[in-house]
Structures are given as structure tokens and as C-alpha cells.
């Protein structure tokens, strides 16, 4: 796809202020629901939960919008252990924020305000990295250096909290070297989504937190979701190291676009369901977000427009995004053939969250199981 999508612009403007209608949940019998619940309970009990696994967070698995399994464990404050984590505890979803940023950019594309082939220097002309398109940023093919690292080596005073604009100013002033020419290769880079958040602000006339609140959180009924700002401190749950000590905030805890959305499993279920409709963006445009753009190397892992993908030999496609920031771990995985979503949020660092999610897919379909026709080698 290239160019602006002028067609549909009027409809999109109406869509922005129209009421959202969530799709009706898939009808599942109580017997089937109980069977899934039992299987999932045994599975997570054996892989992630239990007194010695140190899981502190929430798990939700749903099929067609119907919750099959939901569990919360631990405390919002591990030092006090007075407030149990619950369905309304807002946890940092880290890089699982990137799909929200990507869909917001696609909304602006649908409105005709930019195109995938526009260069970022069209909007930020003093940025010293020519030739990088919006598509390159969305697909992590920009070749830009990661701001999490070049800011550490920069002259920025680490006693001061940095904003997205501050990072952009450092890039312009200090010109950290790029890692590769644009569209040469896939290289996951948080700078891409920090710049996209600035782009959303420039084209919408709203701050990124305001845009997310209006176009997603309020509209979809995600009552416990927000972009972190100091005014949200009382609503956000802190994160912890594996030993239970608080993970302190640092000077990059105000940057957003690549991270810094707080949410809950129930709110992310609403986000999952909205992605089955055409009420956020046109279905044909969303379909492009779920395509792979990194085929220069063999393998099953790819990146779309803001979504990670697994394109498996079985023909199955997994659409997902994991996240990690400080002590936070996040999983948001969609098995669209079965209309299943697996959501796990934790605020006590725990790598087992990712493997537990990954190995749960075969409970719903033949994702990784060996083909019975294969012979042992």
C-alpha cells in the first residue's frame, strides 16, 4: 500500500466521534466453557502459578469475547502486602503498547493525513536521518539507534526526566549513528515508536495520552487504562525485582509510544475484540498490519505494522506483542483462527510468563505439536 487513503476520510471522521459497539460474545456452552476452564487452570497451575514461582499479576484467556479463565495473584504493593491485585489493578504493559501506537498511526493514514511511504523528515525536517518512511518505523526497519542506549551515552542530565521531545532534541543535536540504511533489515528499536508518538501529536493536535484516551480507552470502555504521566501515579501499580524489591523509576519513565500504557487483562480483552471489527480502522488496512515485512531471513518470526507475528509451518498465524519494562512483563496474544486471546500481565519480573503463554497455544489448535506423520530422526 502507498499513498493516502482519501477514500473513507469522511467516514473515518464520523467514526471518531461515533459510539463503539462491541461485537457480541461467541456462544459457548457451559459444558465447553467448564472444560476449557479446567484445562487452563491445570495448565497455569503447573507452569506459572504456585508458591515458588513468584508470579504476581493477572491472567485472562478468552474465546470470542467469552472469558474461559481468569486469575489474579499477589499484591499491588509487595512491601505492604495489604492490597491484593485484582481485575482493576492497572499494570504497565511495556512494549505491548506498540500496537496501540500503530493503530493510531493507521487511523491518521486512513484520514489522509499521511501515508506509509511518507518520510519522517517530512514532519521533522531537522531530524538528521533521511529516507526513513512511516512504514520503516512501524516495521522496525528504520536502522535508527535505540534511544534507551544512546540517551545513556548522551550529554542528557540523568537527574532530569526526559520526554519524547527531549529525545528528539538529543537526536538532532548529537546525531547518534544509525545502525543500517532504511529498509535494509529488521532491527527492533524503541526509537521508532517514540517518533511515531510525536507524529501522532503533530498531526492530531492532541498529546499522545489525550489521543489514546479519546480514541481507544474511553471509546472502548477501557476504564482502567491510561498513558502514564505524573498525575496518574496514584492509579499505576509499581513494579518489582524478582527478589520482591521495588524497581525504581528512572529518567526514561515519561517517554511513550513504545511503552508506558497501563492497563488490565479485562481492558485488553476489549481491545482484542475491537480489532475484530472495522470500527477502529478499515479492515483492509488492519489486514496489512497483520502481514509480515521481514522476510530477508528464513524463520517463522516476523513483524507487521505494530504487531509481532508467527507464521508457522502448520499454516497457523499468531498475532501478538510481548513487553518488558523494569519489573513488568506483558503478554498479548491473539489466535485469530480460534478467536482466542491470551493475556498475562505481571509486575514482578518473571520470564516464565512468556513461555507459559507460548506453550498454551496448543491447547486450542495444532500450533507447535509435531506432525504425527513425521518419523523420529
Concise account of the structure shown:
This protein is an alpha+beta fold and 377 residues long. Helices cover 31% and strands 14% of the residues. A hairpin with a 2-residue loop joins strand 8 and strand 9 (328-335).
Order of helices and strands, N to C? HHEEEHHHHHHEEHHEEEEEH
CATH topology of one domain: Beta-lactamase
**Biggest β-sheet: strands ordered side by side in the sheet:** 2-1-10-9-8-7-6
Q: Which oligomeric form is depicted? A: single chain
Distance between the termini: 44 Å
Rg over C-alpha atoms, rounded to the nearest angstrom: 21 Å
Low-confidence stretches: 1-15, 371-377
Q: Helix content range of the residues, please?
A: 25-40%
Total beta-strand segments = 10
Give me the number of helical elements: 11
Please give the structural blueprint:
Elements: H1 9-17, H2 30-47, E1 57-63, E2 66-73, E3 91-92, H3 98-110, H4 134-138, H5 147-153, H6 164-174, H7 190-204, H8 208-220, E4 226-227, E5 261-263, H9 265-274, H10 283-289, E6 301-303, E7 308-311, E8 317-325, E9 328-335, E10 340-346, H11 352-358
Antiparallel strand pairs: 1-2, 1-10, 3-5, 4-5, 6-7, 7-8, 8-9, 9-10
List keywords for this structure.
single chain, 377 residues, alpha+beta, Beta-lactamase, seven-stranded antiparallel β-sheet, three-stranded antiparallel β-sheet, 11 helices, disordered C terminus
Structural description of this entry:
- The protein is an alpha+beta fold and 377 residues long.
- The chain is built from eleven helices and ten strands.
- The chain has helices spanning 9-17, 30-47, 98-110, 134-138, 147-153, 164-174, 190-204, 208-220, 265-274, 283-289, 352-358; strands at 57-63, 66-73, 91-92, 226-227, 261-263, 301-303, 308-311, 317-325, 328-335, 340-346.
- The strands form two sheets. The protein has a seven-stranded antiparallel β-sheet, with helices on both faces. Strands 3-5-4 form a three-stranded antiparallel β-sheet.
- Strand 7 (308-311) and strand 8 form a beta hairpin.
- The termini are far apart.
- Residues 1-15 and 371-377 have low confidence and may be disordered.
Amino acid at each position: 500500500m502507498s499513498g493516502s487513503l482519501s477514500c473513507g476520510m469522511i467516514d473515518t471522521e464520523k467514526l471518531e466521534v461515533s459510539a463503539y459497539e462491541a461485537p457480541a460474545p461467541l456462544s459457548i456452552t457451559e459444558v465447553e466453557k467448564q472444560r476449557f476452564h479446567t484445562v487452563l487452570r491445570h495448565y497455569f497451575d503447573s507452569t506459572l502459578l504456585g508458591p515458588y514461582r513468584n508470579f504476581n499479576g493477572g491472567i485472562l484467556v478468552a474465546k470470542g469475547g467469552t472469558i474461559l479463565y481468569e486469575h489474579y495473584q499477589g499484591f499491588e504493593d509487595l512491601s505492604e502486602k495489604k492490597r491484593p491485585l485484582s481485575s482493576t489493578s492497572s499494570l504497565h504493559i511495556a512494549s505491548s503498547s506498540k500496537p496501540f501506537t500503530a493503530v493510531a498511526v493507521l487511523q491518521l493514514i486512513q484520514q489522509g493525513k499521511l501515508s506509509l511511504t511518507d518520510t519522517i523528515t517530512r514532519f521533522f525536517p531537522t531530524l538528521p536521518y533521511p529516507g526513513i518512511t512511516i512504514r520503516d518505523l512501524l516495521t522496525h526497519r528504520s536502522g535508527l539507534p535505540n534511544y534507551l542506549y544512546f540517551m545513556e551515552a548522551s550529554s542528557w542530565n540523568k537527574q532530569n526526566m526526559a520526554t519524547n521531545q527531549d529525545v528528539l532534541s538529543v537526536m538532532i543535536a548529537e546525531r547518534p549513528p544509525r545502525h543500517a540504511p532504511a529498509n535494509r533489515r529488521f532491527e527492533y528499536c524503541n526509537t521508532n515508536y517514540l517518533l511515531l508518538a510525536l507524529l501522532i501529536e503533530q498531526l492530531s493536535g492532541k498529546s499522545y495520552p489525550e489521543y489514546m484516551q479519546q480514541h481507544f480507552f474511553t471509546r472502548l470502555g477501557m476504564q482502567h487504562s491510561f498513558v502514564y504521566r505524573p498525575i496518574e501515579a496514584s492509579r499505576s501499580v509499581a513494579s518489582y525485582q524478582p527478589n520482591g524489591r521495588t524497581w525504581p523509576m528512572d529518567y526514561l519513565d515519561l517517554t511513550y509510544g513504545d511503552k508506558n500504557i497501563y492497563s488490565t487483562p479485562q481492558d485488553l480483552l476489549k481491545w482484542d475484540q475491537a480489532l475484530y471489527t472495522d470500527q477502529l480502522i478499515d479492515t483492509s488496512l488492519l489486514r496489512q498490519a497483520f502481514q509480515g515485512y521481514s522476510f530477508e531471513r528464513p524463520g517463522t518470526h516476523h513483524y507487521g505494522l505494530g504487531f509481532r507475528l508467527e507464521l508457522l509451518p502448520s499454516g497457523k498465524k499468531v498475532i501478538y506483542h510481548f513487553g518488558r519494562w523494569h519489573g513488568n512483563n506483558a503478554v498479548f496474544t491473539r489466535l485469530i483462527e480460534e478467536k482466542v486471546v491470551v493475556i498475562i500481565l505481571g509486575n514482578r519480573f518473571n520470564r516464565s510468563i512468556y513461555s507459559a503463554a507460548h506453550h498454551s497455544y496448543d491447547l486450542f489448535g495444532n500450533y507447535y505439536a509435531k506432525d504425527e506423520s513425521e518419523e523420529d530422526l
